[in-house]
């Protein structure tokens, strides 16, 4: 598996498996178990997904040494603040059945995320977290936390796909030694993603699907990807993206698909902020 090297020297698999929107613990455990069988070793979960326990079960039942896995989870808004974050990290460790978390992210840039980050830095120094970062931090808030934290974020997980390639935001991340990680590499099918003519035509040259071309494009741009599926056949397809390379011409064609805006929501929008913060009661 290809990796990216984080600012502290930790190597993170460039391809992982996401478990967003798989809240049923039995199904999630089954799906993660299948992903492990396919060969995935990087698993991305979150407190808000409600399935950390299932991920922990699948990893433990696999019989594969814990050191071979790279497990990511995220602190949710309701657990923001120094003391609450510490308690939630302990709970995540318990649910994941592990002594350490490979990567811990702040899930959203709301509530007392500075207190959360201080707790994360403390656990990082204690060896209970191997790498720390953020998620959904747009350039303004990203710069703010990068400049005023003791340990700048090592990863920023943001919406990234062929229609929203985050080129400018990525330049800012690179300035602070932060790696970009994609959530929604298939844009959850929006914009008629899987029928895009450019991706289809390029895929035909290599005998690959639209999804495989989309993943390969991001991987060649050194973007970490965590595609999610509950179908084993698609797990295999998504994993099978290291036996070909897109030409410079193909890369240029896909680069032109960039619309430079979200297909989901903007964290700059008051309505979005009210919606997301409204999930906390």
UniProtKB/TrEMBL annotation:
Looking at the keywords, is NADP present?
Answer: yes
- Entry annotated with the keyword Transport: no
Q: Which residues belong to any copy of the NADP-dependent oxidoreductase domain?
A: 16-258
Which InterPro entries does the entry mention? AKR, Aldo/ket_reductase_CS, NAD(P)_OxRdtase_dom_sf, NADP_OxRdtase_dom
- Swiss-Prot/TrEMBL keywords: NADP, Oxidoreductase
Gene3D superfamilies per the UniProt record, alphabetical: NADP-dependent oxidoreductase domain
Top-level taxon in the UniProt lineage:
Bacteria
* Pfam families per UniProt: Aldo_ket_red
Q: Which family does it belong to?
A: Belongs to the aldo/keto reductase family.
According to UniProt, the name of this protein is Aldo/keto reductase
Natural source organism: Heyndrickxia acidicola
The lineage, from the top, is:
Bacteria, Bacillati, Bacillota, Bacilli, Bacillales
């Amino acid at each position: 598996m290809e990796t990216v090297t984080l600012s502290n020297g930790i190597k993170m698999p460039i391809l992982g498996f996401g478990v967003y929107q798989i809240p049923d613990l039995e199904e999630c455990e089954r799906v993660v178990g299948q992903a492990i069988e396919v060969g995935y070793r990087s698993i991305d979960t979150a407190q808000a997904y409600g399935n950390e326990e299932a991920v922990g079960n699948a990893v433990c039942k696999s019989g594969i040494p814990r050191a071979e896995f790279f497990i990511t989870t995220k602190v949710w808004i309701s657990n923001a603040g120094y003391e609450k974050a510490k308690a939630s990290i302990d709970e995540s460790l318990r649910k994941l059945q592990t002594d350490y978390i490979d990567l811990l992210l702040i899930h959203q840039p709301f509530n007392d995320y500075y207190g959360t980050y201080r707790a994360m830095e403390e656990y990082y120094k204690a060896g209970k977290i191997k790498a720390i970062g953020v998620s959904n931090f747009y350039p303004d808030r990203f710069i703010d936390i990068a400049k005023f934290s003791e340990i700048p974020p090592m990863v920023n997980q943001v919406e990234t796909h062929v229609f929203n390639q985050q080129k400018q935001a990525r330049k800012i991340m690179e300035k602070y030694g932060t790696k970009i990680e994609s959530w929604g590499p298939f844009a959850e099918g929006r914009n008629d993603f899987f029928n895009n003519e450019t991706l289809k035509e390029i895929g035909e040259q290599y005998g690959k699907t639209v999804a495989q071309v989309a993943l390969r494009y991001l991987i060649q741009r050194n973007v970490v990807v965590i595609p999610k599926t509950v179908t084993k056949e698609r797990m295999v397809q998504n994993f099978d993206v290291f036996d070909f390379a897109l030409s410079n011409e193909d890369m240029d064609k896909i680069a032109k698909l960039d619309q430079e805006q979200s297909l989901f929501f903007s964290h700059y929008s008051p309505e979005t902020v009210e919606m997301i913060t409204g999930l906390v009661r």
